[in-house]
Amino acid sequence: MAISSNFYSTPDAHKSFHLPVQQHRLPSSNPIKAQDSIFPNRTVAGQITRSVFKFLFYIHLSLISILIISLTLYALIFSSSSHTSKWHLLLPLLSSPLTAAIVGFTWQWITSCNPSKAIKAAFWLSPLLTFSIGIMFVYIESPLSLTSGVIALLSALIQSLYGCWVSPRFQYATKILSISIAFPPPARTRALGFSLVLIGIIFCSFIAGGIGFARAIESKTKLSPLFILLILVSLGWTMQFLKNVLVVTVSRIKYMYFACGVEIDTRVAFHDTVKYLTGSVSMGSVLVPAIGLFRGFARWMSLVGGDMDEFMFSCVGCYMGIASALVMCGNRWGFVYVGVYNKGFVQASSDTWEMFNRVGLEQLIDSDLTGSFCFLCGVTGGAISGLVSGIWTIVIHKSYASEVSIYAFLIGYFMCRLAMAWPQACVSAYYVAYAENPNPQTNNRFDSTIPTRLQQLQRSLALA
């Protein structure tokens, strides 16, 4: 049932469907009118925090645009002819956004047509392609490339071992992914994803040009490395922002269907996200990668340390305790409540995680493979982009091949993560909606997939 602009204008409109969620938590499903927001007012402190992050994001975007335009003009006007050969590096670098977009759209198509093949392909292609780019780095034989090559080869080994370890979970991951992306029909949400990927291509091409022109004027200024660092930071934040805008929009649409049986117009949901939720999305785009990186490090310390409480003069238990506390402040599941209830990101993350703990889903959520699947799709995209740009640069100017490959890898990774935000948002909404109302008697849109998986986990723990 599509939601029209006057859905709540008639007294009996709410009787047309049954709402299984509690009334005091019921999200509003009608479009936001131009003069008013359907979202409830929040605390002053929360509003200020979100306004600050919104301001910082837009001001950083303006400043980085000014920087790249200035670098471009300076390089075109003042760069000497002896350094114009570096401009040829722009072509290999500019190829990375387009290459990554093709890979990202391919992942989208495979995921929607055959989730099982998509998951298996991601877990086996990713280490192979990472290994390939590692070999390319070793072949280049520069200090930077050798370091990058060793890191890539170790990463390929770790990905291979991880794929073997989690292979028993593939069947459940396939089922949960298939269910979550199937309903309601994904045509419009996928169209939104396509549009944001096109925006990503334009932005990444702009970024690639900025990096290329910064390298072209390195003989004129010693600040080129600083300029490139700033451009890369902007690349990461902006692409995370675009990805999370898609996550918030799609997860709201999916949540309303799973929780209420209501379909929201994609354009309305996207408008609400851009107009009212930019601050929370900007904040989450910073917190989630940082907390995820620390949490991964803590887990690695725990696995390597084993039963020892200290490892390399560090307290393993302390790291895990901090990681457990941080996940309450920022996790990707919180984006669902950001879109549905207009909560601040930290509060939304805390509420979703507490809800998972309350209904016993924390172990299942923690071992969910959807995040790993989307991450590995991004690695594959980054590796393919890095290989294409790197081999091209080896042919025309080998001494710059390692640097160009690294930049292309980053661009490719972020582009593919943006393309794969759609299925990740669907799964997030499915889990959150289920956790909020797991009773099959009041919500018939959930089958036995999650309860069966929980029983399997409980049996395995009992046997252990």
TrEMBL record:
InterPro entries listed in its UniProt record: Choline_transptr-like
Keywords, sorted A to Z: Membrane, Transmembrane, Transmembrane helix
Signal peptide residue numbers: none
Protein name: Choline transporter-like protein
Function: Choline transporter.
Pfam families: Choline_transpo (PF04515)
Transmembrane segments: 55-77, 89-110, 122-140, 146-170, 191-217, 223-242, 276-298, 310-333, 369-392, 404-422
